[in-house]
Amino acid sequence: MRRFGRVVAMLALAVLAAINVRVQAQSAADFAQTAAYAAAQQNADGGFAAVPGQPLTLGATNTGLRVLDYVGGSLLDEPGCIRFVNSCKVPGGGFAQRPGGKPDVVTTALGLMAAAELKIDDKAMIDDAVAYFRANTKTFEEVRMSIAGLEAVGARTPDFSRWAEQLEAMRTPDGSFGQYPGKAFVTGGVAAAILRMGMNLEKREAVIATIKAGQRPDGAWSKDDGPSDLSSSYRVMRALYMLKEKPDVERLTGYIARCRHADGSYSSTPEGPGNLGATYFATIILRWLRLLDGKPPVLETVTFAPLFDTMDLLGWQGNTALWSARDRMLVGKSPGLDHNEFLATRQSYRDFILSLRFHLVDDNGNSGVQFRSVCVPGTEMSGYQADLGENYWGCLYDESRRNKVLAKASSEALSTLKKNDWNHYVLCAVGDRIALYLNGVASVVYREEAPDIARDGLIAVQLHAGTPMEVQFKDIQIRVLP
Predict the structure, then answer these.
(1) Sequence-distant (≥ 6) Cβ neighbours of residue 147 within 8 angstroms
(2) Are residues 242 and 315 in the same domain?
(3) Residue 70 φ then ψ, to 5°
(4) How far apart are CA 110 and CA 107, in angstroms?
(5) Which residues are CB-neighbours of 295 under 8 A, at least 6 positions away?
(6) Same structural domain for residues 346 and 449?
(7) Eight-class DSSP state of 331
(8) At residue 1, does pLDDT exceed 90?
(9) Domain's final residue, options 228, 258, 292
(10) What is the CATH number of the domain that holds 460?
(11) Which of 428, 383, 438, 429 is nearest to 408 (CA)?
């Protein structure tokens, strides 16, 4: 039995090592898929919601911005995001989670972080936040977050010395902070706060030893005697990163890999659902590990660019009797057709993230978005299609090639569908991986196994054969991946 146990343990370590190799050598596809997931969470009003379909919050918006930054992604609507962040500012005070709400210390810190990510240069905003912190910061969590917010905008406050005394009062005789079972968690949080104020951390060796001792066999940390999670691990890893100390990287990256989902998101524990907050924790920890290893933080990326200029059909090819630019929309209107019609780009695309909003008027007919496609004789196109229409919403269809649904839409994505209204599609195609996001929720995650299927081609929109119909597209943007 002992020998069998050792064999099992060795096999488990081998599996974790294999996972670690994959995570440490993250590919462009890994970055792009997480970037597509995060970009898909941005609402039409510019902000982000913690969960698709829920109200926008400043906290979720800051989280979304940071995820995009750490994976080399970009915002779909930067001006809208700036407007949302500014609308959460309370005149003469801090920030609230939503426009018109009540400010609090933690949210004010998040507001400063979001402003820094968006490069909002507003001295009065910073001065108001400093004054708000001075009047309202009391608890350890408020102190920790106030320091983080001020660090983000490069500001200081006379309260740093008072806060440092408050933090030092938490130190225990062994040189660390807090009590078991949450000793590593508290020690990491306090140490990071002291370092972020630019102050000297006394008894560094004791702090480092306590944090490292708290790393569990599964590779992560916990704030107490409960399960390990990415949130606690993030708190602890920030201190290790600032101290230029590595944890057991193999175990930690193995844990993070087990928290990754096929749509590019992460959950806080391996069994949980993917969400924006956990995705932030995972991406920043992986970023720190890459930097500690002397590797670049992200791969080279570019921003989104308009694919449709809203004024005309320049750069597109198709029947202009059926397709037009109207009211800043790309509109397809059919009088009733006995064949499919497409409006296609003249340029071919290989690896990319495509974002657009669509409206199938009166919920009538069928349409879709072709990609990696080619024109075939007549009016047809052959290639992948992100489908839209009754019984096909959110599906990945293979148009005029294999002529079948390659992957059905997830029930979670379909629950977000707004028929006869505007919906949001994000398509991510990198190598053999394809992911579709409907209103911020993963609809399809697909890997192409056929080696002869093209990895590049045109992008197009469809008018399906059948009764008269109208389909509208807007905010069509593409981010070409290196």
Answers:
(1) 160, 163, 193, 196, 197
(2) no
(3) -75, -20
(4) 5
(5) none
(6) yes
(7) E
(8) no
(9) 292
(10) 2.60.120.560
(11) 438
- Report yes or no: 30 and 301 within 8 Å, Cβ to Cβ: no
Structural domain includes residue 298: no
Tokens of 179: 């009590």
Alpha-carbon distance of 442 to 444, in angstroms, equals: 6
How many Å apart are CA 414 and CA 396, to the nearest integer? 13
Q: Does residue 349 share a domain with residue 284?
A: no
* DSSP symbols for 345-408: ESS-BSSEEEEEEEEEGGG-SEEEEEEEEEE-STT-EEEEEEEEETTTTT-EEEETTT-EEEEP
Is 146 domain-assigned?
A: yes
Distances in Å between the alpha carbon of 197 and those of 157, 169, 327, 434, 456?
A: 10, 16, 51, 44, 50
DSSP codes, 68-127: HHHTT---S-HHHHHHHHHHTBPTTS-B-SSTT----HHHHHHHHHHHHHTT---HHHHH
- Helix-helix angle 105-117:140-152, to 10 degrees: 20
Closest to 231 in 3D by CA, of 267, 177, 202: 267
- Statement to judge: residues 321 and 366 lie in one domain: yes
Kindly state the tokens that stand for 208.
């480092």
Residue 60: domain span: 2-292
303: closest CA among 482, 455, 61? 482
pLDDT tens, position by position, 41-71: 999 899 999 888 888 999 999 999 999 999 9
CA–CA dist 416, 171 (Å, integer): 49
Following CA atoms 73, 77, 83, 84 in sequence, which dihedral angle do they give, to the nearest 10 degrees? Answer: -70
**pLDDT (0 to 100) of residue 296:** 78
pLDDT tens by residue, 326-337: 999 999 999 999
Reported confidence tier of residue 359, pLDDT bands at 50, 70, 90: very high
Measured CA to CA, the distance from residue 148 to residue 116 in angstroms comes to: 11
Q: pTM for this one?
A: 0.86
Residues 255 and 361 in one domain: no
Distance CA 432, CA 225 (A): 42
Q: Is residue 187 part of a domain?
A: yes
- Cα–Cα distances in angstroms (integers) from residue 160 to residues 25, 129, 140, 148, 305, in the given order: 39, 14, 13, 12, 43
Q: Are residues 217 and 338 in the same domain?
A: no
Task: Assess whether 216 and 275 both reside in one domain.
Answer: yes
**Residues 164/166/172/174 CA torsion (nearest 10 deg):** 0
HSE at residue 347, side-chain half, CA atoms within 13 A, is: 10
Check residue 15 and give its pLDDT. 33
- 119 and 254 inside one domain: yes
